[in-house]
Amino acid sequence: MMNTRPALRPVIPENSKLVIPLLVWAIHLTLAFLTVLSV
Question: Are 14 and 21 in contact (CB under 8 A)?
Answer without folding.
Answer: no
